[in-house]
Every structure is written in C-alpha cells, then in structure tokens.
Model the fold of this input.
Amino acid sequence: MEEGERSPLLSQGTGCWEEPLPGSSRSGLAPQEDQVRRAGPGGDPASSLPWESSCLKYLTFLSNFLFSLLGLLALAIGLWGLAVKGSLGSSGGTALPEDPLLGLALGGLAVSAVSLAGCLGALCENACLLHCFSGGLIAFLALEAVVGALLVAFWGPLQDGLESTLRAAITHYQDDPDLHFLIDQVQLGLQCCGVSSYRDWTWNLDLNCSSPEAQACSLPASCCLSPGEDGGAANDPCGFRAPGLDEGAAPRRVHLVGCGPPLRWWLRAKVRGAGAYAIAVVAVQGVELLLAARLVQALAVRQGMVESPRTAGSQRSSAQLAQA
Done:
C-alpha cells in the first residue's frame, strides 16, 4: 500500500498519535487549566492574582503590620509598668491585679493578636486567618459601639457626679499611686486645688490638722503656686499649715480655685476632639474590614478558577472511560 493510503488508516487507529487541533494545547488540557498549571507547582495562587487583588493583599499586610507593632508596644509598656510597680506579684490573692496598666496590656495584646492574624492572613493568602481577623474587627466595633452608647447615655450623670468623685479621690490620695499621680496632674494642669477650694483637703485624714502624721495640716505640692521641680513632698513648706491660713495670706502661696468647675469645662472642650478621634478609629477599622472582605472574595474567585479546570478534566476522563 502506498504511503498516502496508509496515513488515513493510521490516523484512525487507537493508540496512534494525532495531530492536535488548532487552538488546543499540546498537553490536551483546556486553555484555562493550562494557564493555572503554568502559575506554579500545584496551581500556586501567588502569580494568578490580578494586580488589583495584589494591591489589596499588600495594603492589608502593611496596615496590619503597623497596627501589630502598635499593639505590641502597648503590651510592652503595660507589662513594664506592672513589673516596675510590682502589681503582678502583689495581687493580694485575686485572680488579676487591679491596675490601670493591666487594661493597657490586655488591650495591646488583643490589638496585636487581631492585627497579626490579618497580617499573616494577607501575606500567606490564608482565608481562615482573614476570617479570624474580620471577626476580631467586628468584635472591636461592637465593643466600641457599646462604650459609645453608654457614654452618651450617662454623660449627664457623669458630669453631675464629678465633684463627688473628686472628693473620694482626695480622701484616698495616699492609698493609690495612680490616683496620687492623677490628682497632681489635674491640679498642676488646671492650676486648681481641691474640689471647690483648697480647704477641701481637710477631708483627707492624713493631711488634716488633727492627724498625728508628720504631714498633718498641709497640702500637696501640686496646690502650690510654685511647686518644686521634682514635684515636692506632701508636707512641702509651701503647703504646710496652708489649710489654716486666712483668705488674705493663702493667695500668695496656694491656688484658691477648686478643680470642679475647671475640670467640667475641660471635659466639655475635649469631648468633640475625643468624638472625632473615635470616628476616625471606627473609619479605619471599617476600611480594614472592607479590604479583608475584598481579599477573601478574590481568593475565593482564584480558588474557583483552580478547581474548575480540574473538575472539567476529571469529567472528560470519566466520559472517555465510559466511551471506551
């Protein structure tokens, strides 16, 4: 048989090589599957993400990396403060030490954990970590909404109870170092003394003139017109015997204005700035949540592109076996 007559027969036989049709890949795979196979070993999604999704990925990574650093910094400052003050070892048998720095440490731990989940989820393209990050952000937003609602609802009673709170703080001035520091900063910053006047410090049993202590009948150095550079002592000569001074001699040594009205005015002036800061924080968290959702959606689309050619290939193999 001639050569030209054998070619059609050979092309119809089983197990013989056939010329691939124009437009089809040499490997017999669909163009979409062949493109996914060329993306990397096992269909590595790194090079298959479009540039928009890649921008989302690295933007989410960088923003969460910065927030994780801030959270770790807050955690370190809180733990350092607790260690320096000895609050971790002197909890008095309670489950947790009662210290404001504990809130800073726990807040830094929560922020750093959620931010690290978003950072690693974006970098490794892990949808599970991104879902955990989104859940943490939603929990933060819910907590902030509850706190904001409580502040708005109880803002009036908080202002009305400000003076009673200051009186309680003056009474326990020596009992808590944090309270001691806070009262001194308020009196130094607002240039005031006591709640309504400097004579309110007679409520403190250690500073009262009838007290047997060495610092009796004195005022804190923060009440003085010219406190020492180092903060002075509780029985600083400026404040010594000041509660017994008459109205003519006291203005030359201590502040006469109480801290109640100035502190209320200061809070009213700062409430707008605090509200703007809270809105900015919520907006940033909302943008972070939107970026994470868009990235998860892009990963889901990419995963569907990877699985679709494999499913089509398995269906074609099953059809060929059925025909055979």
